């Protein structure tokens, strides 16, 4: 598993749903990986990176200019977060050692991941939280918010489950934090970055084809946020055969691009007019509909691009990062837990997500 590419992906990849908002912290500890920090933490709001720490720099730093506003409400914020991240680093090193013993491992490359955070639907008010561990890219242990207990999908994590389930007060606090305190911080960060996180940009749409026998690609680029639907439609319905969906990718300017392929080899020429590519952006009523027309397909033998009036042509160079997205999803599927012991009289909303002290396995 390529840790370096995964962490780069997490720092670059951005998501900003218009309804479901999220605050996430990804922490990756590694052992036996040369020329790479043994511990990295990335904080994200709507998957836009807001902060970063690694064991080489030994400092938590903001990743967005608007995150500097936090110091107005929280004096000494970045110093405190740095101290907490440094303590997390030490605990992560211990946990890798414990995990290696449980899996009867000695040397080699090993990774330890922890994802924690919360989600808030600003239309329904529904909230959710998560705290998950992963080891070597596989699920290790995760907190069940409904039962306030830990789930251990692997035998090596059963010891940790019994250990953490034995502290009911700790699990109760964890539940309260992820359903209340974390949500308060999410709303605060959303307010800080309102001009960036809550903007809307429509894309230009192109039909592309490499060769006459290749699939026709509907490519949308320049949209924001990435809460979108891009699909082929035939006679008003969405076909599921002969269609391949691509990943949502990041452009250099912070917008996104996505493509969906239609295999036209099985489509009769007289039926091409029955197909259209449809782009839908959450919160925008009007769809962008592009009919499958040979005259507007951009090919290697030179045809024109479809774009909305007043919009610039899209950058047709598609970054090859789909593989990185898959790796990231695999890591995200099994990532971590940390808990902060609430002091008497301390309000949940005053606790930064960084304040959780990681416990050992």
Automatic annotation (TrEMBL):
<dbReference type="InterPro" id="IPR050208">
    <property type="entry name" value="MHC_class-I_related"/>
</dbReference>
<dbReference type="InterPro" id="IPR003597">
    <property type="entry name" value="Ig_C1-set"/>
</dbReference>
<keyword id="KW-0732">Signal</keyword>
<dbReference type="InterPro" id="IPR007110">
    <property type="entry name" value="Ig-like_dom"/>
</dbReference>
<dbReference type="Pfam" id="PF07654">
    <property type="entry name" value="C1-set"/>
</dbReference>
<keyword id="KW-0325">Glycoprotein</keyword>
<dbReference type="GO" id="GO:0009897">
    <property type="term" value="C:external side of plasma membrane"/>
</dbReference>
<dbReference type="InterPro" id="IPR013783">
    <property type="entry name" value="Ig-like_fold"/>
</dbReference>
<dbReference type="InterPro" id="IPR037055">
    <property type="entry name" value="MHC_I-like_Ag-recog_sf"/>
</dbReference>
<dbReference type="InterPro" id="IPR001039">
    <property type="entry name" value="MHC_I_a_a1/a2"/>
</dbReference>
<protein>
    <recommendedName>
        <fullName>Ig-like domain-containing protein</fullName>
    </recommendedName>
</protein>
<keyword id="KW-1133">Transmembrane helix</keyword>
<dbReference type="InterPro" id="IPR011161">
    <property type="entry name" value="MHC_I-like_Ag-recog"/>
</dbReference>
<dbReference type="InterPro" id="IPR011162">
    <property type="entry name" value="MHC_I/II-like_Ag-recog"/>
</dbReference>
<keyword id="KW-0812">Transmembrane</keyword>
<feature type="signal peptide">
    <location>
        <begin position="1"/>
        <end position="22"/>
    </location>
</feature>
<dbReference type="GO" id="GO:0005615">
    <property type="term" value="C:extracellular space"/>
</dbReference>
<feature type="domain" description="Ig-like">
    <location>
        <begin position="203"/>
        <end position="290"/>
    </location>
</feature>
<dbReference type="GO" id="GO:0006955">
    <property type="term" value="P:immune response"/>
</dbReference>
<keyword id="KW-0472">Membrane</keyword>
<dbReference type="Pfam" id="PF00129">
    <property type="entry name" value="MHC_I"/>
</dbReference>
<comment type="similarity">
    <text>Belongs to the MHC class I family.</text>
</comment>
<feature type="transmembrane region" description="Helical">
    <location>
        <begin position="316"/>
        <end position="340"/>
    </location>
</feature>
<dbReference type="InterPro" id="IPR036179">
    <property type="entry name" value="Ig-like_dom_sf"/>
</dbReference>
């Amino acid at each position: 598993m390529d840790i370096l590419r995964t962490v780069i992906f997490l720092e670059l990849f951005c998501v900003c749903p218009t309804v479901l908002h999220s605050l996430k912290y990804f922490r990756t500890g590694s052992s036996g990986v040369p020329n790479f920090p043994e511990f990295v933490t990335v904080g994200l709001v709507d998957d836009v990176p807001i902060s970063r720490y690694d064991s080489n720099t030994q400092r938590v730093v903001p990743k967005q200019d608007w995150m500097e506003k936090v110091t107005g409400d929280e004096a000494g914020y970045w110093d405190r977060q740095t101290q907490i991240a440094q303590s997390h680093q030490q605990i992560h090193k211990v946990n890798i050692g414990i995990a290696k013993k449980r899996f009867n491992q000695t040397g080699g490359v090993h990774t330890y991941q922890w994802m924690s955070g919360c989600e808030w639907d600003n239309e329904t008010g529904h909230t959710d939280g998560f705290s998950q561990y992963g080891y070597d890219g596989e699920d290790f242990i995760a907190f069940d918010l409904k039962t306030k207990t830990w789930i251990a999908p692997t035998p090596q994590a059963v010891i940790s489950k019994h250990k953490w389930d034995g502290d009911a007060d700790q699990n109760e606090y964890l539940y309260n934090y992820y359903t209340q305190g974390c949500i308060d911080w999410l709303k605060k960060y959303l307010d800080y970055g309102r001009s960036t996180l809550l903007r809307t940009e429509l894309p230009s749409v192109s039909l592309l084809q490499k060769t006459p026998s290749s699939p026709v690609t509907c490519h949308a680029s320049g949209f924001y946020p990435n809460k979108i639907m891009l699909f082929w439609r035939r006679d008003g319905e969405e076909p599921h055969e002969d269609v391949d969906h691509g990943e949502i990718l990041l452009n250099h300017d912070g917008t996104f691009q996505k493509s969906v392929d239609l295999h036209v080899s099985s489509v009769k020429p007289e039926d091409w007019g029955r197909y259209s590519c449809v782009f839908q952006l959450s919160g925008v009523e009007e769809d962008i509909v592009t009919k499958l027309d040979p005259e507007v397909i951009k090919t290697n033998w030179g045809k024109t691009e479809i774009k909305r009036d007043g919009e610039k042509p899209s950058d047709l160079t598609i970054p090859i990062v789909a593989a990185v997205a898959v790796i990231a999803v695999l890591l995200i599927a099994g990532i971590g837990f940390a808990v902060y012991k609430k002091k008497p009289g301390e309000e949940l909303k005053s606790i930064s997500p960084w304040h959780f002290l990681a416990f050992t396995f």
